[in-house]
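Sat 14:20. Reprocessing the chain from the morning session after the first attempt stalled halfway. Input below, unchanged.
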Amino acid sequence: MELDQRKQKILKAIIEEYTATGEPVGSKRICSLLDITVSPATVRNDMAVLFDYGMLEQPHTSAGRIPSHLGYRYYLDHLMELPPLMPWEEAEIQAMFNVANPDPDQLLEDAAQALANFSQCVAIFSTTTPNTVCVKKIELIPATGNTVVIMVIASNGVIKSKVCRVPFQVTPKMCEFFTEFSNARLKGKSLREISTSFINSVAVGLEEYSGVFNSILSEIYELCKEINDGQFCTKGQTNLLAYQDLKEVVGDLLIFLDHPQEVQNLIPKSGGDIQVIVGKENAAMELSQSSVVIAKYRIGKEKCGAIGIIGPVRIDYTNIIPHMKYFADMLGELLSETFENNQSTMENNEKP
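Finished this time. Tokens:
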């Protein structure tokens, strides 16, 4: 649907004023905001046309109008102007990531909390693992008594470890034997190939030792699955309680956010680096009064990470989107450096 220039300016002014105040906007107020000279009667006529087009709504019998979800979509696609971040804004985001030797899991948790605090919305963070990622190395390290540390290192630099109690006295020789055995069968295997049936077939190769090492193989499977599943976290759910726009649906929305798989499904599998799903465009009924903004980022050469916010449709997109894009870029860079450092350290340790 095409709008002439004046109607575009009126729609843009209504959306930006409603975003700032949360109150219906009248024709006199619009006249004071426009950069063209136009009478209130003309503005009212244009607002009536925008109402007929479904871009404006009238919440009650007052003369004011508010933008509809369709109006927001037109604004996002055709009218929104994104200002560049100021140097001090970039510096604030950089300071959030000024961490020496960051732990990737904790980094995502902290970044999600920081984005939730900034946006005053729900923040979601997710990473996915490319199909090409495989097991690079498995290590079994003796701890004390009947305790061992199992470490799985993936080809993308992700390292996962777990302390495991076993029903036997651990010796360095046993750990050396199992480390050699497991690497001979798992090194180079795609994480997606390592299923329970595959682990069972590996256990058969242990013959009389299968009963001894079964628990360790099970833990290796869980660690591989954890790496393959990627990372996901949600922060800031209680921020939604502050919005009058969501008071009638916030209970259902909070219940929806308690289901991680459904929340992860909100992240589009394709499309651009920044995507906004407005209100009723969301497939989930619980999100019919909310917007979802997703920013994707790269870890290394793969586009396999995403951050997002969930909030009311009336959020300041011109402020939120540039911050999210810079935030995502910084997070991707730091995670890439972390995984590259992990790989370099591992390769140096392997050198004689």
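The mean pLDDT is 86.
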